[in-house]
Write a structure and sequence with these properties.
homodimer; 408 residues; alpha/beta; 7-stranded mixed beta sheet
């Protein structure tokens, strides 16, 4: 049993939002507020940037009902950031922790955020500052190493599968030939795009799926679409925004000039570009659809399983830290209980999770590379189960309204 | 009391799909199958085109549970068309009606479809063929004259308002300046774009709304966005795909070359175009989002009120025809019962509904033309109420599976 550590806790949200990132926040807040060892609970305004700028919110002053609404409020209630920390920043973070007597540091995000978290932990160890540092995973991309899956993925996957099922109904409606190309988020891993295949449960799967894992070939793509068009007079394609040629260049090169703070290309426009190619080749009506932000913020169709698990990740991170854990990310394991899917918790070293991406195994992609296997579908299906029993007013979402009182 | 008319009924779906067009189909089918006077119930494959090609489905042979699932199956289960009929076609339609002894003709669609319906009715009157012709309205655009509102609008409005509320949560998440431009369907009327304002009930309204009713001025737009950016560091814009300059040219001219069967421009790309303009002007991150097909097929978030009313429109059309009515469209009136919104039925001459478009009254748009008034919001709000209590399997939509047995 580790020594009892008394002090404040801080929590920050980083990177792109998901539908359930605030459910993890609620898991952290609720557990930390109830923990004897934790004297105060703070939230970083815009992630680590708020830490650097001394902008922390005092979560203890929030209304408990409003906090509970975080369970179905999409995006990052505290604000997010995309900021790569430097050595100087680590000193500043240390100063801030001393100022507020922060002994528990929780950070929620994807690969880059786990890297930030890892650096903070290493720095505290180096300078001998006693603070337990825990990462809470979050990414619709589902590409974090070590964890069976990531909070945020299940809800985004449900949105993608449902939208594909509905678009299929629409796309097949006219008797004239037509091609619909739906672009799904995912830079280097195709988990979310592959989830389009789950629309097969509605009898409305895409005809073709293109993932970043399989090198894209334009000629092959044109032929694939032509073959489906020939057979069905229609073709519905799901393609990852990160679809890339064998040499690693993205299909959507026109938009790769803008980059985010980490030097990653800002993608998008793949569907529009390919729609133009197919339209020119076959002279048929082609529609390119970018699911855009909706896939990561459509809380109205979030998976309840995902919400529950996101909460669990936040809660487990706090419990583990209170018990003495540090330098870990709260990850998921897949268990089978009474023949049914169940989610377990595991604590993974932060450096395993930082800056490495988990891709779809090749054997979960069909041999011709244009669809996923039943194994892939079986992997995703449990993660999208259950409707978000969300608060509404006037049949519109009732989001959490935080007071955001600045900590002193 | 009109003479009892014994014979078959036919129903067709035309134009762009909505989330609830099949709910009207179910209203027609269920009522017609139960009506003593109606001997057979047929569905046109791809609207009037199926009528011309002798492709009718025998609805009486469908499973009743599958038919009931039409209530939450988006798009057009029988297939749709965009086809302008000529004199020759009217003769063919007459022949087909004689062949199947069709005495009840129901057609579901928007302005153009009501025009088709009106021509069929006039032709039957001219040649003295006894057949009762009724139009059933349908359009997410809500632009049909004479009816208080249109089936399909409420569900699309709910999708738009919910999506804007969610995107707002996402768009405001970073501490860096950013502009998000969301493009909503609507060629000449801004009803659906205006519905974005209902996100104010979630505390997440757009900052600016641009409607086709107000001439678009690029300089003014750039200034408007700049002013909001200056104040909030963010700006969320909802704009109609049909936004147009004072001379009637669309903002998105690049995409106006493709036209549909009626000579209307196929719109889209307005958000992307304006995103480029704003990005260049202010050097901030701008994201253009096209809601695209999702807004007309996202049955998972359909308004139950809209579903019920769409069913009612179909049911009422059949009942009216059986009672002797013809040459009418089943429209809606707005009633107040016990201080609450209630929907009544009215029967409007088809020629009033055909080829004229109802726009938002000027007094429901704010003086500066960049938002809608509370009156507009009060008009839309009752139409989006109630969640679609839809059938699901594996937490994915369970759509109707029709056998589509060809009529003989």
């Amino acid at each position: 049993m580790a020594k009892k550590l008394i002090g404040a806790a801080v929590f920050g949200q980083s990177g792109g939002p998901t539908s359930v990132i605030n459910a993890s926040a609620y898991g952290v807040f609720k557990t930390a507020l109830e923990a004897e060892e934790i004297t105060n609970v703070y939230g970083m305004a815009h992630g680590i940037v708020g830490m650097l700028n001394d902008e922390l919110y005092d979560i203890g002053q929030e209304d408990s009902y409003e906090l509970s609404l975080l369970l179905n409020t999409p995006s990052s209630a505290l604000g997010s950031c995309r900021y790569k920390i430097c050595e100087e920043d680590l000193k500043r973070i240390h100063e801030m922790c001393e100022k507020y007597n922060i002994r528990y540091f929780f950070y929620n995000g994807g690969n880059d955020s786990m890297d930030t978290c890892n650096k903070v932990n290493d720095y505290f160890n180096k300078v001998g500052y006693e603070c337990r540092v825990m990462g809470v995973p979050k990414t619709i991309d589902n590409d974090l190493m070590g964890t069976d899956h990531c909070p945020g993925f299940g809800s985004a996957a449900k949105y993608v599968a449902t939208s594909i099922a509905e678009v299929h109904q629409d796309a097949y409606v006219y008797d004239t030939p037509g091609v619909t190309i739906v672009e799904v988020m995912g830079r280097n891993a195709g988990w979310l795009t592959g989830a389009a295949a789950l629309a097969s449960y509605s009898g409305s799967p895409p005809d073709l799926i293109y993932l970043p894992e399989i090198p894209f070939e334009m000629d092959r793509f044109i032929k694939d679409v032509g073959a489906v068009l020939n057979e069905k007079n229609k073709c519905l394609v799901a393609i990852s925004e990160g679809a890339q040629y064998a040499d690693g260049t993205f299909v959507s090169q026109a938009t790769t000039s803008a980059t985010d703070g980490f030097g990653h290309a800002q993608l998008g426009g793949t569907a529009a570009r390919l729609a133009a190619v197919i339209g020119k080749e076959y002279g048929v009506k082609v529609r390119g659809i970018e699911l855009s932000l909706l896939q990561r913020c459509a809380a109205h169709i979030a998976s309840q399983t995902d919400i529950d698990e996101a909460f669990l990740a936040g809660k487990s991170a706090v419990e583990h830290a209170v018990e003495g854990g540090s330098g870990k990310m709260a990850g998921f394991t897949r268990e089978t209980v009474d023949g049914k899917y169940s989610c377990g918790i595991t604590f993974l070293p932060l450096d395993i999770c930082a800056n490495t991406e988990k891709k779809i195994p090749r054997e979960w992609i069909t041999e011709d590379g244009t669809f996923v296997t039943q194994e892939f579908i079986d992997y995703v299906l449990p993660l999208i189960q259950g409707d978000n029993n969300r608060a509404q007013e006037n049949s519109l979402p009732r989001f959490a309204k935080l007071k955001k009182i600045k900590a002193k």
